[in-house]
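The methods section describes the discrete structure representation at length, but only in general terms. What matters is that the chain and its backbone geometry are given together, residue for residue. For illustration, here is how one protein appears when written out as sequence plus structure tokens:
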Amino acid sequence: MRGERLKVRGQRPKIGSRAGFHCLLFTVYCSLLFLSSCAGGKPISTSLYNGEKIRIAVLKGVKESKIGGGAHLSLVKLGKSGGITVNDSIIAESSVTFLPDNGVIYLNGRPFRGKIDVIKDGNGLLVVNELPLEFYVAGLINHEISSKWPIEAVKAQAVIARTYALYQKKKRGKGLYHMEATVTDQVYAGSTAEDDRSLYAVKETVGEVVTYDGEPALTVYHSNGGGMTEDPQNVWGKDYPYLKQVESPFDKDAPNFFWTLNISPQAVEAALKNVGYQVSGVQDITPLYTTNSGRVAKIRVRHGSGELEMSGEELRKTIGYDKLKSTMFTVEMVDGLFVFSGKGSGHGVGLSQWGAKGMAEKGYSYAEILKHFYPGTRIERIY
């Protein structure tokens, strides 16, 4: 990152000047031994501060954010002149760093561990949270599953979340951030969702990753495999030796294992047009090819001006992942509506979270769960 950089820390501001921009400097005194947890104020071992740091894009393209600690909040904006302003004073050309007060910093009312970087990015601001990897994992668990699930399933989630983060850090290491805080990567919203069980699962597996040939594996996962996971070749056109179809029999115990979507031809047409397809009067949707796991790999959409073909995943993305929950479906026309009847949720590749929960309930350890969903891998502790 180039240009001026402001570091903001702690309580009392001092105003200065540097390269024509104002800088604010705060001082903070933090214990290196223990910091209190947002989830109840209990001491946390320093082991969670060791190891890797990770950079998460929390907000992208925003015009302003409120950042600070305690009663000291700053309004950060992209100024009219193009610089970054803090409380209406231009203080940096390209980036500003906010450091935590007592281990925590607030972004728009949410607590985050580590530091916050605000970076000018085109016509908006990119807000990045840099923090210890272990706390990142603890903060995301309750956004991906429930920490109240059997603890072996929670440990499995901790290991694959950590592994996925390290895989992406290696892949994107020279960028402004390593991952996004959404379903694009892993859902993360600061330390609000930390609790005793998520922290326990992280501490019990600290530094452990899933490896293949000595490197972190791409430990993708999904909510529910519909009874059978999918080969990534059928979803993304890429092959990974440790991501293969495996049975996931406990998926059926999930409350939303079966699902139905009723959608009008007009709504399908609008969705297709919204992503750039030239269609007129959608008449029929026909699966053309189904994979060994029972997922629709390719479909044909017939409309008034002709027909088009697309992958099942592309149709999911077009209609909406929250509506068309998986590609393990059948479709028919009933009373003027397309009726999709399916099971499972997500892309189907890698670990099924509900499948892992079921395995844990049957007494499988987190290591056994991971070896089932990622065959040929090892679990190694790297720090």
User: Anything to note?
Assistant: Residues 151-172 form the longest helix (22 residues). The chain has a mean pLDDT of 89. Helices lie at 133-144, 151-172, 196-204, 265-274, 312-319, 353-361, 366-373. Residues 16 and 283 are 67 Å apart (CA to CA).
